[in-house]
Amino acid sequence: MIAFDLQCSKGHTFEGWFDDKEAFEDQKKNGFVTCPICDDKGVFIILSTFAIPKAQFPVKKETHRHLAVGDIGRKITEFLEKNFDDVGTEFTKEALKIHYGVSEPRNIRGISSPEEEKLLEKEGVPLLKIPLPDKIENSN
Ligand SMILES: [Zn+2]
User: Fold this and answer.
1) Contact, 6 vs 46, CB < 8 A?
2) What spacing in Å lies between the alpha carbon of 40 and ligand 1's midpoint?
3) Angle 101-37-27 (CA atoms, 0-180°, nearest 5)?
4) How many angstroms is it from 74 CA to the middle of ligand 1?
């Protein structure tokens, strides 16, 4: 299930739960998605205020922040920085958006908590975990 923030053509906003984006499009096509305030059928998804099920997991920044950095680590870090969009703590939300076709498909990287990883796994979002430091720190 996924929660979409929806808006009708008159500007009322409300939340709707659907199996996925296709389910929303299907139900909308059949006239089942209506504004609870004015019954309008011209309902669309507002992208900016996307919500994930059971949102607000505490994000532990320590997750995936170990490993010594040698040359290979540096190269991987550089590669990721060049080729992956850093979405930081929005990682889980953004991964779900891409998975459900709400966002542009692209490579993203960011921080996730074990709870969020479980959620992504449950939703079938392909996820590659690479332990990397946030940035290359000077070692004393
Ligand atoms: Zn309305």
Assistant:
1) yes
2) 5
3) 35
4) 52
In this predicted model, what pLDDT tens digit does every residue of 95-140 receive, in sequence order?
888 888 888 888 888 888 888 888 888 888 877 776 665 554 444 4
| Amino acid occupying residue 85 | D
pTM above 0.70, yes or no: no
Tokens of 2: 């996924």
Cα distances (angstroms) measured from residue 129 to each of 23, 25, 57, 107, 133:
30, 32, 18, 13, 13
Q: From the CA of 44, how far away is ligand 1's center (Å)?
A: 11
Residues 6+ apart with CB under 8 A from 14: 5, 6, 7, 8, 35, 36, 37
- Report how far ligand 1's centroid is from the alpha carbon of 39 (Å): 6
CA of 83 to the centre of ligand 1 (A): 41
